[in-house]
Design goal:
Elements lengths: L6 H16 L17 E7 H13 L6 E4 L23 E5 L2 E6 L10 E7 L1 H10 L5 H4 L10
Antiparallel strand pairs: 1-5, 2-5, 3-4
């Protein structure tokens, strides 16, 4: 992490990145856009499944580190930022219906339901940065990939 890092600068970069996604200026992955900021993956589920998913995350805290959970129907995540609107603040959303990928969209406002619960889970982008800062370059980044996925 650079020596000019401050929590205020991290919050500003995080907010700017969200606003770029919200306005459609950002349509790509967020790797390296807000150094020092914990990044997350998002799962949005109907309330009828939230308890099962929450239990799954609790039972698997290493692969599914839970950063925040919204209230049902509330698109805001005040624990992570006061101005976050999960319906608009990501560059892209992959929508699944009945377990099948249906579409990629830049805004899910028209799809939002009053029973949706948002889960934010820690993602590898955060520890990739920590590894690079410790002079341990992740191999997948050296190979030009944004994520470490391997066939096992």
């Amino acid at each position: 992490m650079s020596s000019d890092y401050t929590p205020q600068k991290a919050r500003k970069l995080s907010r700017e990145t969200r606003l770029q996604a919200r306005t459609g200026e950002l349509a790509d992955i967020t790797l390296n856009l807000a150094p020092g900021v914990v990044q997350g993956n998002v799962a949005i589920l109907p309330k009828k499944w939230d308890e099962d998913f929450l239990k799954f995350c609790w039972a698997n805290p290493k692969p599914c580190p839970l950063l925040a959970v919204s209230e049902p129907g509330d698109p805001m995540l005040p624990r992570l930022g006061l101005d976050i609107d999960i319906r608009t603040d990501l560059p892209m959303y992959r929508v699944f219906r009945d377990g099948v990928m249906d579409q990629d969209v830049a805004d899910i406002s028209s799809l939002w339901q009053d029973d949706f619960v948002t889960f934010v889970l820690g993602c590898s982008f955060s520890f990739d940065e920590a590894l690079r800062d410790a002079n341990i370059p992740p191999r997948h980044l050296q190979l030009g990939s944004s994520t470490a996925m391997y066939r096992t």
